[in-house]
Amino acid sequence: MREKIVGEATKLLAVGGRDAVSTRAVATAAGTQAPTIYRLFGDKDGLLAALLDHGFTTYLEAKPPVDPDADPLADLRDGWDLHLDFGLTNPALFALMYGEPRSSPRPAAAEAGIAILRDRVRALAAAGRLAVSEDLAVQMIHAAGSGLVLAMLAIPADQRDPLLSDAMFSALVAAITTDDITPPLDGPVPAANALRAQLSDLNALTPGERHVLDEWLTRITTQ
């Protein structure tokens, strides 16, 4: 019954937006009564939280893991395009997921999605291509991608510039990466990022030494 209610609520959200997801409307669509929703979800906020979790889970299922053999920039672009396509295909759900500030922790599926993005950024770092810290790069990519989708959703579909996504991605790549390079790496930040991305494989160091080195490298990348 819980899955059926979430499914019907998702359909109502897609058709009528957040205002269409009332406990009465959802109960009717699911063939049950409002008390069942209160028992399973607590209240409307609990139901919306379940919708939020469902949205991130659906998004995560479509998000492929990092391909270790792929070009890291091409892999990042694939993730960017998937994010855009999901948002434009599911506008109401995307607005619920990314359009509102929240003080509560993100669902586990949302954290898993960020972890995949972090893996893609680490692949860039390991290749010596990252010009900023990994944390800053993750936040910039996440902000730019979600902001792009929300901005495009605010524009009628027939008025959206098809080149906007390409231009945004190019600007983002220029801000967080170095030019194509071959060793030696161009400057301390890409070198520090590349070494930090491979810290877990440095078996010659003790855990304590790796921890200290991580602090030093982080300080270099965030200077």
TrEMBL record:
InterPro entries tied to this protein: Homeodomain-like_sf, HTH-type_TetR-like_transc_reg, HTH_TetR, Tet_transcr_reg_TetR-rel_C_sf
Keyword Cytoplasm: no
Keyword DNA-binding annotated: yes
DNA-binding region listed in the record: 22-41
UniProt keyword annotations, A-Z: DNA-binding, Transcription, Transcription regulation
SUPFAM superfamilies: Homeodomain-like, Tetracyclin repressor-like, C-terminal domain
Domain HTH tetR-type: 1-59
Organism domain of life: Bacteria
Gene3D superfamilies named among the record's database cross-references: Tetracycline Repressor, domain 2 (1.10.357.10)
Single GO MF annotation: DNA-binding transcription factor activity
Protein name: TetR/AcrR family transcriptional regulator
Lineage: Bacteria, Bacillati, Actinomycetota, Actinomycetes, Propionibacteriales
